[in-house]
Structure formats: C-alpha cells, structure tokens
Amino acid sequence: MVRYVYDFTEGGRDMADLLGGKGSNLAEMTRLGLPVPPGFTLTTEACRAFLETGSEPAGLWREVSAHLAALEASAGRSLGQPDDPLLLSVRSGAKFSMPGMMETILDIGLNDDSVLGLAKVSGSERFAWDSYRRLVQMFGSTVMGVDSSRFEQSLALLKELRGVQDDVRLPASDLAELVETFKNLIHLETGDHFPQSPAEQLRRAVMAVFESWNGERARVYRRREHIADDLGTAVNVQRMVFGNLGSDSGSGVAFTRDPATGRPGLYGDYLPDAQGEDVVAGIRNTVPLAELERLDATSYDGLRTHMRTLERHYRDLCDIEFTIERGTLWMLQTRVGKRTAEAAFVLAAALADEGLITPDEALDRVSGEGLARLMFPRFDTDSTGTALAHGVPASPGAAVGAAVFDSAQAVRRAAAGEKVVLVRQETTPDDLPGMIAAQAVLTSRGGKTSHAAVVARGMGKVCVCGAEELTVDTEARRFTAADGTVIREGTIVSVDGSAGAVYAGPVPLVDSAVIRYLEDGSGDGGSQYVVDAVARALARADTVRRLEVRANADTPEDAERARRFGAQGIGLCRTEHMFLGERRELVEQMILAGTDAEREKALADLLPLQRQDFVAILEAMDGLPVTIRLLDPPLHEFLPDPTELAVRIASAQARGEDPDAHDAELLSAVNRMHEENPMLGLRGVRLGLVVPGLVAMQVQAIGEAVGERLLAGGTPKAEIMVPLVGDVRELRLVREEVQRVLAEVSRAAGVALDCPVGTMIELPRAALTAGRIAEEAEFFSFGTNDLTQTTWGFSRDDVEAEFFSAYLDKGVFSTSPFETLDREGVGRLVGIAVAEGRAVRPDLKIGVCGEHGGDPDSVHFFHTAGLDYVSCSPFRVPVARLEAGRAAL
Ligand code: PEP
Ligand code: MG
C-alpha cells in the first residue's frame, strides 16, 4: 500500500526525494526539537500520480483527513472553526529548491464566519480581515486562475483613494470591503464563487500546488537549473503562525554566514509586523537582522541558538525563514543555503578548519564551475569613477551591458547578441527569463534575501539589489540616480556585484585575484581569504585525483601559462595554427605546387619555421609530455576565399584590365579543391597519405627540435599524434613514414629519438575498431569534438543552428552534447575503445583533448571511464584539476 502523507514528526532530511527539500527539513527541525508549527507533507509521489492521471490518487484524501484530524486534536480546534479557527498554510516544496517558482496559499480555513472568530480571539479585526483578504486574493489567482494584477489594481486603487502608501494603514472596514470586491471579482471572472468550505479550500489548494509543478515559470527554471521534469513537488500543510499581529510580531530570513562571501556572521533581513512572503517579495524594505536584537532580544537570542544548532547539525551554511508571533519564535523553513562561488570556497575551508567537515568533504563542496567564475575578470577599481548608486552586493562579479527594464526586452535583446542588464524595482518569478538572459540584475528594492538576490546567486549571475538611491521607472524605461543622471533603455551600465556598485558606461576589466594567484602565486590584500581557500581546494584535488591534466596549447606562451596553471603536459598541440599568418603563403605554395620540386621547396621553407615552433614549446614544457598532432584541417582552409577572388578578378575585368595571373591560378585551385563537406573530406590522416612530403616535413621538424633540445641539455618529451584515423591501415602507413623519418633524423643528428606515435579516436569507426588500431598506436586521445559531430551527425560548425535551441527546449538534451559529453552515445564509444584498446595493449596511454576535457561533468565521466588524462584549454586547467579531484572522492 503506497503511503502519500507523512507527519513532520515522521520524516527526516534523508527523505527529500519523497518529502521535498522543505518537507524533509521541516521534519528534521521538528526532530531536533526546534519550534516548528505542526503539520504534514503530501509526497512527491502523490504529485506524480496526480499529474499522470489528472486526478487525486486513490486514498490520498483519506490519509490527509486522518492527519488533519490529528493536527486538529493537538491544536484543540478544528480547521476553520467559526469561533476560533485553526488556519493552515499550503506550500510547495520540490526536492531541489525552486525559489518562488511554484505556488503557496496561506490562511486556509477563513470564511465569512471564521473571520469574525479570528477577529475576536486575536483581538484584532484588522488582522483578521487582512488575513481573509490575503486568502481570497491568493486563492483567487492561484487556484481559480484570476489574473493576480486584477487584485493588485483593486488594492492600489483603494490605497490611492485613502491616500495611504502602505497596506498597514488600511483599517479593518476597508479590508472587509476589499474582501467583498475580491469575491465579486472572482465571480465575475470565473463564474464561480470563492469556496466557503474550509475542507474544499484545502483540497483545491493542494491540487493547485501540484499543478504549479507544470507552470510556465517552474518549467523555465527547471530547464535552466537542469532539474528533471518528472520529479514532482511535495506539498506541506502546516498550522499558520502570524508575523502580522502587531509590532511584537514579524518575519525574517537569515543565513548562518554571509552567503555572498562565506565569512562568519549572522546575516538576514527582518520585517516587523509582516508575513514571510512580504520579506522575500521585497515589497517593503526590511531592516537588518541585527535590529531584531534591539526589538526583541529574547527572540533574537533564540534565533541565534537555533541557527548554531542547525549549522552544526547540517555541517553547512543554512538559510532559514522564521516568524515571531507575539513574541514567540517559530522556525518555518531551513535548508542548506545557496551561496556564491566565492562563499562556497571560503566556507568549505572554514568548516574544515572548524572540524565540522573533512578535507575531502570540503573539496566536494566546491565546484569547477564556481572556480571558473572566480577566474573571470573584475572591474579595475582605479578607473571606475563615481558610482551612480550603491546597493547590496548580492551576487559577485563584473558585468557590463545595456540597461533594459523588463524581462521580455532582456530576452529579445540578448537573443540578438546584445549584453544587457535587467533593471527592476524588484523582481518576481515572472522576471526569470529576463534574469537568465541578462548579464546582471539591478534592483532598487529588497535585501540580500530578496527574490532577485536569491535567484541571481543561484544562477551565478551578477546582482546588486536594494540600490535605493535609484528611481526606477519601468513604464518610462529609465532610471534616475540621486545626482540626477538619467539612464535610458539601451544605455551601457556596469554592475559590480562584489562591491554593490553601479556605474554609467563601460568600466574596464582587470584579472581576478584568483588568476593572479594562479599566474604567479601572488597574494591579494582584500581577497586573500578567497585566494587561500581556492589554493587549498586545488591542493586537495591534486592529492586525491587519479586523472592527469594536460593543456591544449600551440604557442610557447600558452604552454607556459598552462604550466603555471598546473598542466602536466600538452595533450594537443594543433600544428595548423602554426601555418597561419605570414606562413600562409608558404602553405599556399605547397598546396599549389605544380611540380615535386616546387612542393619540396615550399616544404623546405616551412621546415625551419616548424622546428623553431617545436623547440620553443618543448622548452616551455621541458620534462613534460607534448603531444604534437600532424596537420588536420582541410587544405582549402589555408587558401583565400573563392568569392573574394572571383570578385577581384571580375572587377579587374570590368575595369578592362587583365586579372592578376596569380589570382586566376588560385581561384582554379580553390575550385578544384572545393568540397561540399570539407569536415568529412580531405583532412586529418588523409592529408598525410595524399600530400607527398607533408608528414615527412612535420616529423623531421619534430625530430630535429627534440634533437636540438636534447643537445641543449633539456628533457623533451614529444609524442606524435595522427588525427582522424578510421582504420588501422591508415595509421600503419603514416606510422611507417614517421618512423622512417625519425630514424633518419636520429642518424643525422647523432641522438636517440624516442617519440611515441599514437592516434586520435574521433570517428565512430575508430572507436569500434580500437582493438585493431591499438596494434599500431602507443596512445589514444579522444577527439570528442569530432567524435560528437560524427556520432550525432551534427555539424560542429553550425551548433548555434536554430534546431539546437528547439532541441534544448523540447528536452531532447539538457545541455549541448558539444559542451557536456553525451554519455549514452559518445560515452559508449569511448567505453568500447578504452576496453578494446587496452585488451590489445594493456599499457596504452589514453586521454581526451576535445573541449569536453575541461567540462566538469565530462571530467567525471572520463575518470570513471578509466582515462589517464584530460587535456583542455589553459584557462580550464585549474577547473579540470579540481573536478578530477572531486571525481576521485
Ligand atoms: C576533436 O575533434 O575533439 C579535437 C580535439 O580535434 P579538433 O577540435 O582540432 O578537430
Ligand atoms: Mg578533431
């Protein structure tokens, strides 16, 4: 018999799959003996069953009724009891937090009768009618589908009529009138009445929360956060406690440490005489939590004690929501808090120091993605000039973009390739698409725990909120700073999420403190604590990881940087990049050579240049392996564009002149070499087999460079890699040539040359015949860019294609397979090639040098697949080191 409902006393934090994050944590707090209003949770399984069939699963309501009866018995009153009503909140709570994305309905149990009872027992008519007003409004929009702005408009109208700014100033009679207006509005819009039966209210509220799982904003959020669509949400039904019962009541949100920096201290916002929703919505400006100490020292002390309990129990930063009802403190929610990348590193190190977590746990608490964020440049504080305004530094980083004032505009401009900053008074869940599209979010209202701050932090997006000196006029699409500066839509602004400042115009960027540390080990006064925390995480990762990390580099500068960033060699040196610039002409001569002699001349001219390149790179990576790949791309990439040539020739003719003979010759060669699908054409190993002398020249350059380095007392470790092999015979032919040339160079230079020869595995056929290929290969390196292209049949040069975003939208995949390795398909080929390659040659060295080598999720896969190393761009090297360490935990 499936069970759909659990009392808070029955659950625990390890039940998040079933009870959702909020439900499992409420249960955990209940078990810890913290003051949690009693309640129960309907499971995610109930939600899934409801969403699948469109109706309530059998037996669900029987269980709910039994739990409700128990709740009523313990409270000594019943739901909506006319003289003293028990009131309930109904809140969503999925396994992964989706702040504000689903529905909440409060004050369930109020109706035309019980509102009078509530007025009597609470001693406040105003409070009772305000609660009823809130219920009708929330129920009307969430459950009955009336546009929420209709209610807002009525409320605003009444406030205007009465000449008041704040809801708090409306007397009970006005609120009672508003309830009538709202009820009429519901009837008018839906033809249905607001239900007076408390039981019906509860039932319909629960179903509405289930349904909100599939609401538009929830779906957008899940896609962005890669949360599966089939998890469903739990629903928490809990006794209401009230923060809006006067000045001895209030609601707040708090963090056990600063979620922006990770530093110790009690952070949060408090709003006297308000419900929790008012705090998060940023509708009224909150006061800092420290103020609570002055307002209600007993509750403040209680809160601090509970927060210490929670942090020690969860062994992590927690965020909490609390309410004080007439001097009694209630804990309404806790969870392991979202934090910035910086805070993640700082916290992990601090908690390890405090002995709350082990060094391995500390490593597991940080991420490569977070590290990458800390490596982004920041604003050059010497050239920022005067800020337009300061606000709360809610989510760090530096962003420059055009100011836009609504979500739709942000999405539109970003889609057209523009960088934008979304400016709002405060954000709501409806702004989510715009927040995703923007570089930064700027609000004039709300604190560190406002919607804008929480969501931006979760997404790693730059955010400054509560910049109160700014007047944001979304209608007129502009904001005005205190000094009178007006910023209109489209004007560039710079947002410093670390300092909480906003500037007009673009502010120049400088390297981050972490980059400077990686570059030369230098410290940084202000952010030394971040640098230290990052250094510790990397050191731990280096201790535990099994995967080596190499870099893709084809210049000595890149090689040196990669080495400073911790690379243990070069996994891919693309020689084609050495054929560009002024050398292009030589390549052109080689391609166009009419005779062997001409070609040999061109190759002979290229030889010393190539040798020089290799000497410099081998020197930069002295003692570490350098995998040099033979020329790969289609040759026509080195020739001029045929359209340009044709235009040049045609305009010469139009002027009555003879076209340049060289141009005509070039054009016919380019046309001769034209391929419809060059990426599947004459490239890779195929070039080596059909262009005489090419492999020999490159290998001679490598051999001579190694010889030169040896004679100079170095320890060069060149490896020669053959690209785009599909069959062992291709590799065998090239390898014979390589060995012949190496033997010649060795004889001529009088040095022994030991250069392993291996191949890329970047075609499905290579993966499927890896056992055969391993007979000729001393190492494999997966070229997962081409392997993804050829496995899926997606052109890697057209990944921005329209259909890719459709695929992402329709959920065919949640990230591009060119970014994160497709484990199921491409990963399977990798698995086959590793197994079959090693079966033939047990000591086969295997790595990867496609872009996936620097992608965190893919690094974990390569660890599990048993690779020896990953190779990625120099800037991703620290990320790969960190993730390789985490993969080994
Ligand atoms: C690859 O295909 O993954 C690879 C590393 O080679 P390239 O990107 O140069 O084709
Ligand atoms: Mg390739």
Quick rundown:
With 889 residues, the protein is α/β, with parallel strands linked by helices. Helix content is 46%, strand content 17%. The protein contains 35 helices and 31 strands.
Kindly describe this structure:
The structure is a single chain. Helix 6 runs antiparallel to helix 7 and helix 21 packs parallel to helix 23. The protein folds into five domains: 235 residues, Dna Ligase, domain 1 (2-Layer Sandwich), CATH 3.30.1490.20; 87 residues, ATP-grasp fold, B domain (D-amino Acid Aminotransferase, Chain A, domain 1, 2-Layer Sandwich), CATH 3.30.470; 53 residues, no CATH class; 133 residues, 3-Layer(bba) Sandwich (Glucose Oxidase, domain 1), CATH 3.50.30.10; 303 residues, Phosphoenolpyruvate-binding domains (TIM Barrel, Alpha-Beta Barrel), CATH 3.20.20.60. 46% of the residues lie in helices and 17% in strands. The strands form six sheets. An eight-stranded mixed sheet has the order 12-22-21-14-15-16-17-13. Strands 24-25-26-27-28-29-30-31 form an eight-stranded parallel β-barrel, surrounded by six helices. A five-stranded antiparallel sheet has the order 1-2-5-3-4, sandwiched between helices. The protein is an alpha/beta fold. The protein is elongated and about 105 Å long. The longest helix has 25 residues. Bound molecules: phosphoenolpyruvate and magnesium ion. The site of phosphoenolpyruvate has 10 residues, from strand 25 and helix 31. Phosphoenolpyruvate (PEP) binds next to strand 25 and helix 31.
